[in-house]
Amino acid sequence: DAGVIQSPRHEVTEMGQEVTLRCKPISGHNSLFWYRQTMMRGLELLIYFNNNVPIDDSGMPEDRFSAKMPNASFSTLKIQPSEPRDSAVYFCASGWIGGYTFGSGTRLTVV
Amino acid sequence: QQPVQSPQAVILREGEDAVINCSSSKALYSVHWYRQKHGEAPVFLMILLKGGEQKGHEKISASFNEKKQQSSLYLTASQLSYSGTYFCGTVNNQGGKLIFGQGTELSVKP
User: Fold this and answer.
1) Cis bond before residue A25 (omega within 30° of 0)
2) Is the peptide bond before B3 cis (omega within 30 degrees of 0)?
3) Given an 8 Å threshold on Cβ–Cβ distance, is A55 in contact with B87?
4) SS3 B74
């Protein structure tokens, strides 16, 4: 199993640009989570899906953030427009009742 | 809603033991434990689903007191490889969201 695959690994973009982060969960996992990690705020839950349906997006900071899961093997997190305070490592995790596996993360830098 | 971990940081010598605590203000359905090394993703250690359940993973084990809404992670005879930041994550209901504590930084010195 290749694990949870995230792309890109690193992204540097200018303020105001649109950013799209991608995630391929492990086959058979029915839950998918998007987290953001910074030194100041730790691991924050942004949104999670069960069986491709968004269940709770209360952690999405603003309307600039949106997430989709069109099918069981793909999810995206979009930031439009991006701001310097969005700089962080974004993790996707998939799993089931027995535990969750994290992807390697996307390090986003907005300049 | 975020669980609270203690201590925030701990420094050990190889072979020493440590306990990391995690407490929640809400009733818990399950508790997860993860370890993250610098520059890497969190790695799943174990999940505890029932009150009073204890689980082990090599020399790392954990307990879950459902009544007290607490969990503890026990590291015995620590090794250098145990260094990292340990996170507890809590789920309040089946199918619910996994929320992480602020982390406990563990350093094991030779």
Assistant:
1) no
2) no
3) no
4) strand
B97: which chain A residues are within 8 Å (Cβ-Cβ)?
A: 33, 45, 48, 55-56
Residue of A nearest to B98 (CA): A45
Bridge partner residues of A68 (DSSP): A76
| Mean pLDDT score across all residues of chain A | 95
Question: Which of B6, B29, B3 lies closest to B89, judged by CA?
Answer: B3
Q: What is the pLDDT of residues A54-105, one digit of tens each?
A: 999 999 988 999 999 999 999 999 999 999 999 999 999 999 877 899 999 9
Query: Is pLDDT at A21 greater than 70 in this prediction?
Result: yes
B39 touches chain A (CB under 8 A): no
Q: Is the dihedral of CA A109, B1, B5, B6 positive or negative?
A: positive
Task: Please state, in angstroms and rounded to a whole number, the distance separating the CA atoms of residues A15 and A2.
Answer: 33
> What average pLDDT does range A7-31 have in this prediction?
97
Query: Any CB–CB contact under 8 A between B84 and chain A?
Result: no
